[in-house]
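In response to reviewer comment 3 from the previous cycle, which asked for concrete evidence that the modeling workflow produces usable outputs, we include below a single protein chain processed end to end. The sequence was submitted unchanged, and the resulting structure tokens are shown without manual editing.
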Amino acid sequence: MAKELEKVDVLTVGAGWTGGIVAAEAAKAGLKVLSLERGKERGTADYQHVHDELKYAIRYELMQDTSKETVTFRNSPDQKALPMRQQGSFLLGDNVGGAGTHWNGWVYRFLPYDFEIASKTKERYGEDRLQEKDGYRFRDWGITYDELEPYFTQFEQTAGIGGTVNHFEGKRSKDYPNGPMIKTKIMKIFEDATKDMGYHPHFLPSANMSAAYENPDGEKMNPCQYCAFCERFACEYDAKATPEVTVLKTARRHDNFELRTHCNVVEVLTDDKDKSKVTGVKYVDTLTKEEFIQPADIVVLTSYIFNNYKLLAVSDIGEQYDPKTEKGTLGRNYCYQTSGGATGFFDEQFNTFMGAGALGMSMDDYNGDNFDHEDVDFLHGGSITVIQSGVRPILTNPTKSGTPSWGAEFKDESIKQFTRSFYVGGQCATSPHKDNYLDLDENYKDVFGVPLVKLTYNFTDMDRNRNKYLAERSVEILEKMGAKHIDMDPDLGDYDIVPYQTTHNTGGTTMGDDPETSVVNNWLQHWDRDNLFVVGAGNFAHNSGYNPTGTVGALAYRCAEGVIKYHKDKKRLEK
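The workflow returned the following structure tokens.
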């Protein structure tokens, strides 16, 4: 029998970026806030001497334990879905901070085009370019860039983002609060080459601190040491903006906030008398296996996209999407991300072993609708970037195509090219398709007996065409940069769950202005439950040519404002 606990004003399921933002803002507004985190407590003190590539980058110390919780995968509905038994295509975070602990720190704002992709495409090219007959389902987000801009700014101020103005981005109300990172030789060569080609390079917007920074909440971060241990690693020096050193620290300054760890939420509870309301959640203590009922006036799902979807599905909140009839909204518009680029090999040496997660130069001349799509067979595009995140010897061993995979020549090439090669690539948008979606698996369950999320996904023709186009542009840039040998990425085949590609999963709990095609409104409030909010990359109606975190952070601040408004007025929020 589950034990019922004392009611709180606001409950967040998850304590990463989104949960931390909602918790901090609600706590500052005087609400009694509880964050339930199924993982363990952790912070900077746990990351001292973190430079262990085997432990963190190969054995995934900071990631989810797939023996307890994972997803099943198939390319199409006529295949049998099987569980991902070890971290593969994407790396799911775990414990306090979530994936925000081990990220690189790229913080782009999505383009104005992204939020109105359907209407802007029809306006410029006609409705046929949306290719509805081919199964593509592009939708506007129910919010514009201008409406979201103040929340982008708020997230950048909180996370101490450094960078320079992007020629193609939407209007901003404030400059970046921090300056750009250092400009390395690799970045300078990229900048000079792309400018000569008529492009518009800019510093990659970075959550790695270019200088000591104190955010508006009084949280302090230190300047980056360029140690090259960002991606898949936590920061030992508080030089990377993470939830633990920003929003969660802010929330914890308030007596009306509690962070409770080892609490795995298994169900969101609906009011028996009023089906338009939730009453709280049921969770299991992962250490004692005891069950608890945690009542709350407002529940906010702030975990990773798969778990946000899963909790709605197992709690029978919303209608599951059916690809045959295209009825239902829960689970639709799942998107991933691709990387179309090339590796260049040079005669001169570079300090490739030093760097930071977001140390790089980028350009958006082929992103969004910044170029004419009349003569290409896809919509959208991608940012093209050179990144100097720091190569490490286990994961990185670049050799030219045609080099033997063993023997003396392999060893010589490995040693030589380690400091003479780097990658230029497009981070490509992906297109929503009616056959790419999330649902619950009928055969496999997690350690608590709850069905696993089943992912049905394959790259679309648009994805493949877009990826190849960006790879070809990357080759041209490397040629201009003076590379002596260039290996372009191969064409995309079918999507597979291995090897690692990106952790940028989106969709499944999309936002919009119509409950017939979206799960939440533009306040991230569930259409069917007034006091339930769902926020994260699952809200994206498609994926862009950028990392998602900046936009996720903006949506979280929008959501937090909505939570506070709703708690005050107890009325459904209007745009």
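The mean pLDDT is 97. We consider this sufficient to address the reviewer's concern, and the full set will be provided in the supplementary archive.
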